[in-house]
Specification:
The chain is α/β, with parallel strands linked by helices. Helices cover 38% and strands 17% of the residues. The protein is built from 15 helices and twelve strands.
Amino acid sequence: MKRILVVRTDRVGDVVTITPVLRALRNYFMGSFIGTLTNSNSVHVLTNNPNVDVMIEDDFSKGSFFNVVREIRSYKFTDALLMLPTERAAYQLFFAGIRNRIGVGRKLYEVITFMKSVSRGGYYPARHEADYNMDLARKLGVKCDDLRREIFLTEPELDEGERIVSNAGSTKDKFRIAFHIGNGGSAPNWSETKYLHLLKLILEKFNDRNISILLTSREMSKEFLSEILTLNDDRVINITNEFTDLRQLIKVYSTVNLAIGPSTGPMHIADALCKPVIAIFCSRNIDSPARWGMGNPEAVNIQVSDEHCKNCCSPDKEICDIENGILPEDVLKKVEDAINRSK
């Protein structure tokens, strides 16, 4: 029986993209034991996932390195898939004694630890991150192109999400829009000014509609929140004080009718929950929808046009003019479509 450890220790959205791999491994290797190694925050993405038997966490502290090694070793894994190369995880897998280890590329520490590898081909042409992840499972013999991302919530968790949002002032009869403006600098993004413009457009357009806009980003500045207060509109609710960890944020997102934001973890969460999503992207290959786009049937990925990028972004694409490449009015049209579909 195979005992497989899937490793992805970076951001929330990245961990969401390994969920198709976990499902494929479970279906292909019937009776296998499947574990995951993630950081202590993104582990919440995998809670209650039926395709995971054990979740191992790494808090990245210096003293925990060999504690993680010992925990990994205790499960006697036969295979490990290191989805994105990190030196720490590569050595943890090596010291844990896992014989068949598969990584990405040929980093020096991968060579030193005799790790097998797959290539991402320089990301040209771009494929989705979930597909790149699946390449490692394919190296084990898995045959699968189903890249649907998924997150699992219990009925009590769904009920808790509803309580959190209702207590914050958004009752169940309202069309709830999760409005997330931050992404931790992981990809090009609008300014707060642009998001504020979009928010005002939504309030004006749907003045007679029973909507709630739930602000879910803890990166909102004091200036942005001050502007929100001046609107004096109880349809806008800052819900960031109502959840304490990522799992509770996931519960909140389970209640919404639409999520709006940049390429970031909460949009991937909404996507995995099969919620309508409107996400904005730049057009450079490494950050484009081709690699990070939302995939459920009701998701909309809005990308800076190639023409705008050619004329307004830097030649090396390191400086992206997403600020002017996507207009709030363009997003508003997609919001209107989503609301009309919900009728």
